[in-house]
Amino acid sequence: MDRLISVAAEAEIPASYVGTPIGDLLRFHNLGQAGGPFDQARLLIGMCMDHRKHLRIPDNFAYIIRTGGANLRYSEFKVSYAIAVGGVGAIALVAHTQCGMVNLMARRERFVTGLVERAGWDPEWAEEHFHHFAPMFEIGNEIDFVLSEAKRLRLRYPRCIVAPLLYRVEDNLLYALREGPMIA
């Protein structure tokens, strides 16, 4: 967790985000500052589908794509649409602590049993479904994944600001992330 940058005051917003929609997101969510009204989105937020996360942002401020682990690899057309047609120039990637996409393979039995009991699936179909899709959606470590996804999106959309953030379920706050090698 030594990569986390706490934002509990406006002066703690990283300089590279000041005056950008990313800085605004941190002000709205963490500091409770009001904003808007907005007549169009200024930001695309890619975040996990987890039900424990709720962002405090004004209406019409952001497009939001929710997908397991904040993994936008399979939502790239939607990202492109938000940029090309929606006019956003910034992307906030929001990973979170306690993510179910971390160590997904360990949840195989629960996944298969859940589909059989709750959805009426045949056990073999449920097993096949898990083994087909789990490798595409397992993310490993939340912070490492969101940093690598930010790097990938920066290469894909070089004129856009792409900010990797972490939502701590424990305190419901957003944290900026230190990028680059960590020196011990």
Main features:
alpha/beta; 2 domains; 5 helices; 6 strands
Secondary structure elements and pairings:
Blueprint (H helix, E strand, L loop, with lengths): L3 E2 L15 H11 L11 E5 L14 E5 L9 H9 L5 E7 L11 H12 L3 H15 L4 H15 L4 E8 L4 E5 L7
Parallel strand pairs: 2-3, 2-4, 4-5
Antiparallel strand pairs: 1-6, 5-6
Please give a structural write-up.
- With 184 residues, the chain is α/β, with parallel strands linked by helices.
- It folds into two domains: 4-100 and 141-177, Carbonic anhydrase (Beta-carbonic Anhydrase, Chain A, 3-Layer(aba) Sandwich), CATH 3.40.1050; 103-138, no CATH class.
- 34% of the residues lie in helices and 17% in strands.
- It has five helices and six strands, in the order βαββαβαααββ.
- It has helices spanning 21-31, 76-84, 108-119, 123-137, 142-156, and strands at 4-5, 43-47, 62-66, 90-96, 161-168, 173-177.
- Strands 1-6-5-4-2-3 form a six-stranded mixed sheet, sandwiched between helices.
- A hairpin with a 4-residue loop joins strand 5 and strand 6.
- Helix 3 (108-119) packs across helix 4.
- The longest helix has 15 residues, at 123-137.
- What is the CATH C level class of the largest domain, in words? Alpha Beta
Which architecture of the largest domain per CATH? 3-Layer(aba) Sandwich
Kindly give the count of domains. 2
Relevant CATH superfamily of the largest domain? Carbonic anhydrase
Percent range for β-strand residues: 15-25%
Shape: globular
Radius of gyration: 18 Å
Poorly predicted ranges (pLDDT <50, ≥5 residues)? none
Strands ordered across the widest β-sheet: 1-6-5-4-2-3
- Number of helices, counting only DSSP H or I runs of 4 residues or more: 5
The CATH topology label of the largest domain is Beta-carbonic Anhydrase, Chain A
Question: What is the overall pLDDT average?
Answer: 94
Secondary-structure-based class equals alpha/beta
Instruction: Give the number of DSSP strands.
Output: 6
Q: Give the N-to-C terminal Cα separation.
A: 13 Å
